[in-house]
Design goal:
- The protein is an alpha+beta fold.
- It has a domain of about 120 residues: 2-Layer Sandwich (Double Stranded RNA Binding Domain).
- It contains 5 helices and 6 strands, in the order βαββββααααβ.
- A 6-stranded antiparallel β-sheet has the order 1-5-4-3-2-6, covered by helices on one side.
- Strand 4 and strand 5 form a beta hairpin.
- The longest helix has about 40 residues.
- The model has no long low-confidence stretch (mean pLDDT about 80).
């Protein structure tokens, strides 16, 4: 994801530095990082003091799974030690940031729909009131009473029953509560990930750079084998 929007791209990009306790040449530093890039669907290339990489559908156990593309640059400090700076981007963080906006949109749509239905109900109320005026309860003929015929249904009770059914229907309308809950949940996930994931990425780089490797040819452009 090579989108460049100043300030806005901080939503899905992470930048930072990893100071080293020793002076390392770029080839040696990138050779230590190379095992992290030996995963299916990973392309990377080294040009001078910069390593660029990108990943396609990384596995969950991939230590670079969150940040699927970026650059690593090694430079020497005045104190004689090396400093690795990184600029990486994460599709996962971007999706976690956009998810709350999507659910808030759903919630607003539900509110609009409920408001429209309520307006339709209010418009129909005057006509319903005329239709729902309670009628007098029909009296049962004495002869029918003697024969054990059931009492006729009270129109007032029938009207109350109808009102209860209407209340139940109102309860079944779209509720935006769940959408708000999901929006809040994804926003919390984004905030935690935005702080935690760059820290984990930096820790992974620091651990890789601290482990020396056997002599090997300089790192070159390559693609990890796909299993």
């Amino acid at each position: 994801m090579n989108l460049h929007f100043p300030y806005i791209d901080r939503i899905w990009r992470a930048r930072g530095e990893v100071p080293l306790d020793e002076a390392l040449a770029p080839d040696e530093a990138f050779a230590r990082i190379e095992p992290l890039l030996q995963t299916p669907g990973t392309d990377y290339a080294v040009e001078g003091d910069t390593l660029a990489y990108s990943k396609r559908n990384p596995a969950a156990q991939d230590k670079f799974a969150t940040f699927t593309s970026g650059t690593l640059r090694l430079r020497q400090q005045d104190n004689g030690r090396s400093l690795l700076s990184f600029n990486v981007s994460s599709t996962a963080l971007l999706l976690c940031f956009l998810a709350p906006l999507l659910f808030l949109g759903f919630a607003q749509a539900m509110i609009v729909i409920n408001g429209w239905e309520q307006a339709q109900t209010e418009t129909a109320k005057p006509e319903e009131k005329k239709k729902d005026e309670p009628k007098a309860k029909a009296e049962l003929h004495p002869l029918d009473k003697l024969l054990g015929a059931p009492e006729p249904e009270d129109p007032a009770k029938k009207k109350d029953k109808k009102k209860d059914e209407e209340k139940d229907k109102k309860k079944e309308k779209f509720s935006p509560t769940r959408a708000y809950v999901l929006a809040g949940l994804f926003f919390v996930i984004y905030l935690v990930g935005r702080v935690l994931e760059p820290w984990l990425f930096k820790r992974t780089l620091r651990a890789a750079l601290a482990a020396p490797v056997a002599a090997r040819p300089p790192v070159a452009s390559r693609e990890a084998p796909v299993s």
